[in-house]
Amino acid sequence: MTNTPKNSGFARVGIVAAAWLLIVVVTNLVMAEQKQSTSKEDISSAAFLKVYKVLQHPRCMNCHPAGHIPLQGDNSVAHNMRVKGGKDGKGIPGMKCMTCHQTQNVTGKRTPPGAPNWHLPHPDMPLVFQGKTPAELAKQLKDPKTNGNKTLEQILHHVSHDPLVLWGWKPGEGRTAPSISHKEFVKQMKIWIDNGAVVPK
Amino acid sequence: MVQLKINQKKYEIEADKSMPLLWALRDKVGLNGTKFGCGVAQCGACTVHVDGEAVRSCVTPISAVEGKEITTIEGLSPDLSHPLQQAWIAEDVPQCGYCQSGQIMSAAVLLKHNDQPTDEDINDVMTGNICRCGTYNRIRRAIHQAAKTVRKQKEDNS
Amino acid sequence: MRIINGMTRRSFLKTSAAVLGGLVIGFQLPSSGRRIEAKSKWASADIANAFLRIDEDGSITIMVNHSEMGQGVYTSLPMIVAEELDCDWNDVRIEPAPVNMVYSHTTFGSQMTGGSSSVWTEWERLRLVGATGKAMLIAAAAKTWEVAAESCRAENSVVYHDASKRQLTYGQLTKQASQMSTPKQVSLKDPKDFKIIGTPVKRLDTPEKTNGQAVFGIDVNLPGMLTAVVRRSPVFGGKVKSFSADKAKAIKGVQSVIQISSGVAVIADDFWTAKIGAQAVEIVWDEGPDANLSTQQQSEQYAALANTPGAVARKKGNITTAMDVSAKKLEAVYEVPYLAHAPMEPLNCVADVRKDGCDVWTGTQLQTAEHATAKAITGLPAEKVKIHTTLLGGGFGRRAVPDCHFVSEAVQISKAIQKPVKVVWTREDDIQGGWYRPRYYHKLSAGINDDKKPIAWKHTIVGQSITAGTPFEAFMVRHGVDVTSVEGAENLPYAIPNVLVDLHSPRHKVPVLWWRAVGGTHNAFAVECFLDEVAHAAGKDPYEFRRELLASEPRHLKALELAISKSNWGKPLPKGHGRGLAVHSCFGSFVAQVAEVSVSKEGKVKVHNVVCAVDCGPIVNPNTIDAQIEGGIAFGLAAALHGEVTLKNGRAEQSNFYDYKVLRMDEMPKVETHIVPSTDKMGGIGEVAVPPIAPAVVNAIFDATGKRVRQLPISSEDLRS
Hints:
The complex is a heterotrimer of chains A (201), B (158) and C (721). Chain A has 201 residues and is mainly α.
């Protein structure tokens, strides 16, 4: 068998996976050590602060605005042409999110970013990130009455797999991604939840 | 090769799949009613309907609309009979006219879902369509006028 | 379809040539004087000399020699002919005129559209066209019936002989009419007998603008045509040093990459491929002398210049003495930025250069100049070069470029590749491509005497000259003063005894251009806002203050008083609301506007309604007046609230509608238009509503908040409470 690019690709994936495993193991060891010296509450709280930083990033916050109008850009200004989420968070017939946002990013500078099911939270449960303190946001995330009727497991699943969340780390040309990786973000979310989903003080 | 269904007709488009629908319509099919204004979904001049929803064709790759029902201004009515076209003529809306295909296509989706739009409802949709000539007040009047026609048609049919 | 557009015209001409049997009337207008000669012809090769053609099927074709860019000339100009012709309006079709001296602007000398002048400059000529046609049709009928022409009358495309109850339609008469000699004198109607003029006639071009059939320049397609996108220097005044086209040429569908005078053109099968290709060209630019130019630097330069004496545009009395004796003195600086026109249809041009001829299809405001440009580039004889004017998807001045660059590019490319080509600008090319309304710096000072009357007014203007270095310079720059820089300032209508207006015209590589309403767009802002400041300083109501100072300007005064009487001037307003006023005269018309605004806690300005009064003399189509007032207000308001092109490293910082914002529907105020009944000289309408809106809004903001805005666009930051 010749060494086709496909095969070499597989090899690369293998190396990356091995390296990743090593990092995870080491990190867990470090974490385990930390566990001994810090309370579960502190660990949870510290993890949430990292999660919070991501949720406050424009890529996440822009679609979790305080008002009816989403935000845009790295400076989180009110969305141009004052689009609204409408009755289902997906826009108003004639100007839906999908009127402009495709299921993926498209060619060209400053074209609208795209991911499947581009939308805002349902207006009955707006899940506001904008202007929230860590404590307010943690409370909101924990409470099924304010988080979209989700269990913490479901929240974790949402942030791990939802394509719209994942888009935040592949936002396309001219847009920044959150400072920590998606994997790290999910990990911190899990640590927060596993250690009691503490509301930071 | 991408197959598109536009105004009930099938077309085979010889182009890269990333080509925006706008340019397939204009440069490949020869339907020029849909206009290029900004190329980045800011002005609404390129608005068409895809499966009944308003879509900015300048940022919609043809690969995304394969097999879907595409309607352009040319397919809105065969004879200027759409209530919006009638209202546009009655209110003498256009000036330069360049943005009006997009204005009408956006308004058509609004009217389909809301035959009694308030000024605020109209703003919510039509703020996505720019007119540099400033025909906004006439557009608003024409939409109200067309909504009246639609309501009357519904009454007559019931 | 009542507009015989660019794409259907070829076949139309063939048909009409075959018909060969109708009245065709043309008018030669010697450039030296206003004498108008009429002559009639058979439909023939001389068709280009016609303004009016009546075919045997009764259709009436009126050639329109002004470009339709939304201002309604394809309706208002035919109305003038139809009125005197006494034809049925439903029979009227229009066709854009080809380039020919006979179609030259009656005042400006070449075929062009601008300066809000189409109706008033064609008024006399087109009335004569219609009246001559009618006289010949009546003469033909009289001859047929063997009766006196005086015993016949015409109405709705029919000539009647009431005594014998006979009638013939214009279609039936046209062949006979064309053989009648052209009358030496015709009588024009008494305006009280007008049936079409003065009525709100609907636009002829509305149906095709509501079903996608209207043909703009960008819609022209020729067999075998390619599309080009041009990369131009990002720095104004820059040039191509070297480029590599390898990556662009590797893209499927890219046909060729060539260097032209303005940059590098990528020619492809379609626009999308040309655009992708253009981005792939690697270009090294020679950025030229303005590579470090910035808005900040310009602002400082202009401020320094304003402290030195400039070229004098107006001098009355003795400003120094008057200032010295003033009891109260005021000084203020007003600044406005560069503005892009941003017409909705991006610039474009189709050129087909062949060995035996050149056809150009484009939406232009300057046909004669484009023709000369295409002729010069191709080296073809004048008669082999044809300019086909399409509908313009907005003009606002952007399609009146003295150097003809958008036509020049297309002709150069087509000549080089020997194929028809369509050059299309992207929106980014448009916003970043220059040809802006210049940035201006205004320094004003005024003195008020003990009687609270203004006795001194000094106004120093700093900004690039639009006409310097163009063919227009010869008659628009006098003693170092470009009239387009000072209009609306040097002709200050207020009765102030001592006035000095002077001008500095710094030069930059940033190309500048007339932008709908030109000088008024910044001078009205500076003058009308500063006058408001002076009124408040004198402790007077801004309306009363203006009224007193306009006592000997009856047309200003009538517009002002009408606007005030239709607004609720002086009546209480809701909290946070304010009213503001501005008066301005330009292009022979007089406009007053009262704006009502509110300002939110965040400093966001909402313009609720605008009452506008206009005196533009006798009116052809009141429907056009309403539309142009609304449109002018929207255009001016876009600039007041949002418009701004700033420079950094010699480059424009904005690029598309996300950062070069324009007015959207939610920001459009209610507009009430009131026309001053007038038999005075006819003025223009397309631009006149633009200048007063910014000062009316800014004065209203002061009324609402006590804060004085002196810089456009209006900044919410500064208005936060």
